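In the lab's daily routine, each protein ends up as an entry in a very long ledger. A line of letters takes care of the sequence, but it says nothing directly about the fold. The three-dimensional part falls to structure tokens, numbers that each stand for a local backbone shape. The outcome of that step, for a single protein, is printed below.
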Amino acid sequence: MFQREELIPSAEEILRSLPLPAPLKAVKAARDKLASDVIRGNTDKLLLIIGPCSAHESKPVLDYVERLGKLNEKVKDKIVIVPRIYTNKPRTKGVGYKGMFTQPDPHSKEDILKGILTIRQLHIDAIGISGLSAADEMLYPENYAYVEDLLTYIAVGARSSENQMHRLVSSGIELPVGIKNPMSGSIPVLLNSIYAAQSGGQVFKYQNWQVRTTGNELAHAVLRGAVDGYGNDIPNFHYETVMRVIEGYSRTGLKNPAIIIDANHSNSGKAYKQQIRIVEEVLGNRLYDADFKKYVKGFMIESFIEEGCQKEDVVYGKSITDPCLGWADTERLVLDIADKV
């Protein structure tokens, strides 16, 4: 049984009520092109999607993103930095904190309308303070319309990559969409998801409209590791595994073949410090093999101001979901990546 609590305005209404200012639209358009150029292979720069596991409060996220903006000035010739501002949190068991979209104040009750407005203001402020536009996970495809004018990169999570609606909506987006391998680790399933996202002519109901999509040539693979039937993590960032993905890619005819390595999740077993070692290994493999370098075009890294995580929002700038690198390690790692691109 559904209990109706509050009528949520349409995405069109929300975008009109809290628009992205024109000067920031120009900033975002430039950032969109930079990220898209990486996926298209028009540049040798690396794409770096980096930030908190989930954004639970605006102030520390803006603090973090402002630091990223300053760091970006030092590495922008080598790296395209896209901050993670993830506002929808998937839950393995379906319960618990589900992110700022649903619960804008982690200390208070759910309030989706307030969440939408809080997220839009957060993104607008983040672009203004850093000159960087962000990434978010498209956990609920219907929600994407509320932030479609604000994001430069969209992620489809491991639990969602086999879902038809995620594939359909991805096919109508004109930005890089990183599709993670499913929890099983199946590469054929991953490539099928990318194929569906790149395919035009998809007709379905979206935001009360019958829509037809043109296909998204920027949909690509994200390797985040897998989980076996006993709950054990199986990394897939190693050279041999990535080369098998490249072989699969080469047989598909997919456009703009690209791989992003997620350095956390099942690749690190959520041992967040291991992200540093994983990135270093992948960078070494890019130097070793030209094909590896051609396909592997960036990283996802979970990072915040304070390292680790906490169950309750007590320590400023510390994740309340998965553990993250702290800022000191983050800054060193990003500078090191820039030196080795």
Summary: The two ends are 54 Å apart (CA to CA). The chain has a mean pLDDT of 96. Residues 11-340 form a domain with the TIM Barrel fold (CATH 3.20.20.70).
